[in-house]
Design brief:
0% strand, globular
Length: 234
């Protein structure tokens, strides 16, 4: 798994992809910080994290579109599948590489917090809750994007599929409100990423929300392994 992890992480920085992703997150994060300080004149860090929710949704396909599809396109997937490494190692190695780049991207929020803390009493518990929330959100979105990437050999198709999945996640609350059947609407609302994430931005560490995001990671990484297993034996 370590070899896969190093290979994938290096690949991000051998192409413009990793730098583009970091630039987008740093740019929007910086803009949100300036707006919060200059526009609203407050050190409320939760507003920045809340704004980053939408940015993460629609930039995540950039991070995940090549994870599996690139190997298929270059025909290196067969060599990878026959290498002395388990499917579990392949999937988690690729996942952790993308997750590491994501952590680098959101590390800027630590800087934002200290900038705001220099202006007023720092709210450590609020920042910690927000940070845990965005880390879990990012991990779950990466696993979904990687699964979609495993379904195709085209990075473009993987990106489009990823955007479609992220748009659905963004619209879950609206869809739930439009469903006239109460039990179905309630079931749909329980899948809401936004509602659960909003609790974190309020500084609430809810164990059920944490379990939800972790379950998404486990389920979609498992599904990705099943796709690879099918490819191995086909």
């Amino acid at each position: 798994m370590q070899a896969i992890f190093r290979r994938e992480l290096q690949a991000y920085f051998k192409s413009p992809l990793g730098y583009i992703y970091l630039a987008i997150l740093f740019f929007f994060g910086g803009q949100f910080l300036v707006i919060q300080i200059s526009g609203y004149r407050t050190n409320e860090i939760s507003s920045i994290f809340a704004s980053l929710f939408t940015i993460l949704l629609f930039t995540m396909p950039i991070l995940t579109m090549r994870l599996m599809s690139e190997d298929k396109r270059l025909k290196t997937d067969q060599a990878l599948l026959t290498a002395p490494v388990s499917l579990n190692g392949i999937v988690w190695g690729k996942f952790l590489a993308a997750f590491t780049l994501f952590l680098i991207a959101i590390s800027s929020t630590v800087v934002y917090f200290f900038v705001m803390a220099s202006m007023a009493t720092p709210q450590w518990n609020m920042f910690f809750g927000n940070l845990v929330g965005i880390i879990l959100l990012g991990a779950s979105l990466i696993s979904i994007g990687m699964f979609i990437s495993s379904l195709t050999e085209s990075q473009m198709v993987a990106a489009i599929g990823g955007f479609a999945a992220m748009f659905f996640i963004f619209m879950i609350d609206s869809i739930a409100e439009m469903i006239p059947i109460d039990w179905l609407s309630s079931a749909m609302s329980k899948l809401s990423f936004m509602t659960r994430y909003n609790d974190f931005t309020s500084g609430i560490l809810n164990f059920s929300h944490m379990l939800f995001y972790i379950s998404v990671v486990v389920v979609f990484n498992f599904l990705t392994m099943r796709i690879l297993e099918k490819k191995r034996w086909s």
